[in-house]
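Morning F.,

Quick status update on the modeling queue. The single chain you submitted on Monday has been processed. Sequence for confirmation:
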Amino acid sequence: MQSTLEGVGVERSTSAMTAEEKKVVLASSFGALLEWYDFYIYAALAVQLGSLFFPKGNETAAFLASLATFGAGFVIRPIGAQFFGRLGDMVGRKKTFLVTILLMGFATVGVGLLPTYEQIGIAATVGLVLCRLLQGLALGGETGGAVTYVAEHSPVHKRGAYTSSLQTTATLGLLSSIAVVFCLKLSLSEAQFRDWGWRMPFLLSFLLLAISVYFRAKLHESPTFQRMKAAGATSKAPIIESFSQASNLKYIALLFVVAAGLGAIFGTGHFYSMFFLNKTLKVPTEEVQLLIGPALVLVTPLYIFFGWLSDRVGRKPIMALACLLAALTIQPIFKGLTHYANPALERFLETADVVVTARDCNFRLFADAMTECDKMMGFLTDLGVQYRSTVPETNAPTTVKIAGHEIQGFNPEATRQALLSAGLPASADLSAINRPVVIALLFVLVLYLAMIYGPMAAFMVELFPARIRYTSLSFPFHIGSGWVGGMLSFVVTAMNVYSGNIYFGLWYPVIIAGVAFVVVVCLVPETRGQALD
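Structure tokens below.
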């Protein structure tokens, strides 16, 4: 069976893409683009949503809560992967990922229709979290379904190139969400955007949903699934079958580690880089979008390039190199962003000595700051300030010492004024930003993502047998990439708050990428050329 299919792949590898293949790739990619746009529009508006749907009074706590809600959509993705993966292996790929796109579209429109916290209180927060969970549930089923469907339509020696078109949609979805928000902010006043303009990107999803459903409804079922169904070879219990076989469990574990490496690169390049520029370096949101936009445009065709390249040199070496480069350069890149985007802040960090003295400091990952020390650490981190922590000899009150000036208790205004007097820039000086270098640094971060994500779809599909493929690849992929990548900005920020160092949290993605590199090199098999039946 394998040699026959590979022979067909060789014969077709020299021919152009057929009309049916074009329809499959384009319709699947447009649907995936909509799903990613829907998912990322929250990221583009995270700061605004923090103030609209969470209690006011502590900007850092609201922002962290907003990031946690964003991450919640990723956390639930494995549940969607299991639920929809099971359906996809039992009733078909096409029907399942048609349901996922409907669920995603309606959840996104729901965010645009939600009343705010000021209007209905905590019910608004609950509604936002629920919509995010539905989005994550849908995306958990979409990714596995789309890559399985396209791969099972692809000739064997073009599988990496064909499936990599789906991988471009993650970047294009983020780029689209940024572009829509940017254009709206240019067209509306600040008051208009705050009152109702922020709803428009979510409501736009309804139009995109209608177009996507129209195209997907015209697709045929995957030929691999049709042959399985005709032969009566589909799995009746794909979840049990996936997790009860030792040989299959080994590949699930390996995919989890590779996906975690992807998640670390993904979360760092797509999300945390923007949060870092905006929240830590105090670059205005619109300027951040103008900086990340060109990097995303430049990297988009490289997903297909690396997918194509993996058809020739293999999936394994490209993914391993991406993890290695990320582990070695993430820390220097972010220090470079500080140097070229806000040099005044860099000078302040090098010369100012900020010391927090308190006994009641805690590391709170999923709870609001309770003590004066916790609030002070969050406040300083929100301003992009590094600090040292010391413990007093007696039960003295919390104090912060800035350039010799001591402030007792949590006094935000007095602390801010002392920091400004010591040389802290209130915001980034736009005239001092070296835009070409900042764009280049952002491009390098997303280049690593293209390197590992371009071949990833073909790699995942080739690891598992057809009868349990949708289920087997979806769960570890979303545990690894979803939990690591989705929660990365929140975890990195929380680690920074605790340590007092704006770069400390970046060890989180660095270590994960490093572990993924070792696993890929030592344990992951090369899958290029595997038959899919």
